TrEMBL record:
Entry keyword Transmembrane: no
Record's GO cellular component terms: ATP-binding cassette (ABC) transporter complex, substrate-binding subunit-containing
One MF annotation (Gene Ontology) recorded for this entry: ABC-type transporter activity
Transmembrane segments: none
Domain ABC transporter: 4-226
Keyword set, alphabetical order: ATP-binding, Cell membrane, Membrane, Nucleotide-binding, Sugar transport, Translocase, Transport
GO biological process, one term: carbohydrate transport
Organism from which the protein derives: Geodermatophilus poikilotrophus
Name of the protein in its database record: Multiple sugar transport system ATP-binding protein
Coiled coil ranges: none
Source organism superkingdom: Bacteria
Length: 226
């Protein structure tokens, strides 16, 4: 687990208006931070700069107190949970969770230990031999998070993970993600343009507008303001 600190982060694509314009934000160890704002305000760009999928034009990005501006994604030890969960349909739940460890050529017994531990936490123990097609949406989400957990990532990053789901499943998933994040206590940054998600999921909400921070507040403070 780690804090994420942004100091005067700027992202300039070409010579237009900066997509992210002097953003400074501290996300505490274990905190659940929501990034919200209208389309085009810079949410995804900011998230991608945290992960390292986008270069930072100026400013400093610190993860666990360490400057990561020049670190490749694989060296940042973060985990991005994708919208479509990116599960492999031909693999079992076990193999889906184990996948990043196999890539890293981890010994079998260590893989087994970590997958067992993760599937305990995620209540997936009875489903390890199933294929993704035979799981509920909530179970699939948990498999995706399992893959992040076994890598022992410092933080979870979500980019609008629920935007393709229908309203009912979206509600279930909100509950699921919130429960898991609290159980694991892992630093989380969650991008959405959905007001309900913004107001129910996070410890704090960062409202972006045209590449700048408009406000950072708890959901309660946002709700109670005139
Ligand atoms: P959001 O996630 O809030 O919808 P984005 O971070 O995707 O916003 O985009 C912020 C701004 O940067 C937008 O004006 C968008 O058009 C621009 N932008 C995003 N990605 C690129 C890119 N690869 N090249 C040029 N401009 C981009
Ligand atoms: P390879 O270099 O083996 O083809 P990638 O470049 O896709 O693999 O990823 C290498 C490592 O970079 C991953 O194991 C992961 O740690 C990190 N990484 C890549 N993309 C992401 C992402 N979207 N979120 C988090 N980490 C990522």
């Amino acid at each position: 687990m780690a804090s994420i600190e942004m100091r005067n982060i700027v992202k300039q694509y070409g010579d237009g208006y900066p997509a992210v314009n002097d953003v400074s934000l501290d996300i505490a160890d274990g905190e659940f931070m929501i990034l919200v704002g209208p389309s085009g305000c810079g949410k995804s760009t900011l998230l991608r700069m945290i992960v390292g999928l986008e270069d930072i034009t100026s400013g400093d990005m610190l993860i666990g107190g360490k400057r990561v501006n020049d670190l490749a994604p694989r060296d940042r030890n973060l985990s991005m949970v994708f919208q479509n969960y990116a599960l492999y349909p031909h693999m079992t739940v076990y193999e889906n969770i184990a996948f990043p460890l196999r890539l890293a050529k981890m010994p079998d017994d260590e893989v087994r230990r970590r997958v067992t531990e993760a599937s305990d936490v995620l209540e997936l123990k009875d489903h390890l031999e199933r294929k993704p097609a035979n799981l509920s949406g909530g179970q699939r989400q948990r498999v995706a998070m399992g893959r992040a957990i076994v890598r022992q990532a410092e933080a979870f990053l979500f980019d609008e993970p629920l935007s393709n789901l229908d309203a009912k499943l979206r509600g279930q998933m909100r509950t699921e993600i919130s429960r898991l994040q609290r159980r694991l206590g892992i630093t989380t940054v969650y991008v959405t343009h959905d007001q309900t998600e913004a107001m129910t999921l996070g410890d704090r909400v960062c409202v972006l507008r045209k590449g700048k921070i408009q406000q950072v507040a708890s959901p309660r403070e946002l709700y109670e303001q005139p």
